[in-house]
Amino acid sequence: MQIVDPKTGQPMGGPSPQPGQSAGGSADASQFIVDVDMSNFQQVVLEGSMHIPVVLQSWSPQSASCKTLMSALEKLAHEYQGTIVLARLNIDEQQQIAAQLGIRAVPDVKMIIQGQLHDQLHEALPERQLREWLGKHVTAPEGGSESLEEQAQKALEAGDTAIARAMFEQLISENPDDHSYRIDMAGVMTREGNFDDALSILDALPPEHRDGVKARGVRARIDFAREALSPEDIEAMAERDDSEAQFQRALRAVADGDYERGLEGLLELMKRDRSYGEDAARKTLLRVFDALGGDHPLTVAYRRRMFTLLY
Predict the structure, then answer these.
(1) How far apart are CA 5 and CA 10, in angstroms?
(2) End-to-end CA distance of the chain
(3) Of 32, 46, 60, 34, which is closest to residue 1 (Cα–Cα)?
(4) What DSSP character marks residue 288?
(5) Following DSSP, what letter does each residue of 74-112 receive, concatenated?
(6) Which candidate among 15, 117, 278, 286 keeps its CA 20 to 30 Å from the CA of 107?
(7) 124-162 pLDDT, tens per residue?
């Protein structure tokens, strides 16, 4: 039986062994994780996907990000308890299949369902985002465990920065090439008021991460936190409803990462008292937009509302 490329429908050729076998023909350690080559691609990926969605990860032993991604996908494959199959394709060893599939760079992950390409990834996403991606195509098993990243974020939301810090330290240790976790750690330090330590982490990142939207957001929060009044001072202003109090509450919200509340407060101040602080509300809105990035949903929504006020 010939292998058929799910993108082109063209035959690739090659016999098929029994399911559940690795590329060498021996039984794999897990029936949900299979190494594929010319001998079993047709059966495992295409025929198998007629019954169970197949996540095809193309990887290279030379890529650290591929190894990080593989570890996360293997964990999820076990957790999904047979509702997905993880098929691993070593493109260095299986160059013919990689060429037929049009794979020119890794990481490359494809979701194959009913023999067809339904979705794909070209980056090593954190586990939380991988779960979200899988969830668009496959129902997650009941009682599935939360990722460590999700637990860390919940700890942060609960104000427990010590727990969050410990979890991000573990994530950094387990995923040394995933710089997003280092940025998360800088965010935790910002919440704790350790601005210099947070900036040291950000400054040490590779340029593409150091200057990226996520890192810029943490830097902006540090700037806002240094400008904003302390939570105690904000609480002492509880009875005040003047423009200064409204501005300081919005600034504090942004510094705490509650961007929506901060943006709402700044927009209301812009409506109410445009002259306050020489147009401070509008100028601060623009700073927050820059920190979040132009494509962020809050930026898109509040920029539109700001322009409506202006014009």
Answers:
(1) 5
(2) 65
(3) 46
(4) H
(5) HHHHHHTTTSSEEEEEETTT-HHHHHHTT--SS-EEEEE
(6) 15
(7) 887 778 888 998 998 877 655 677 888 888 888 888 999
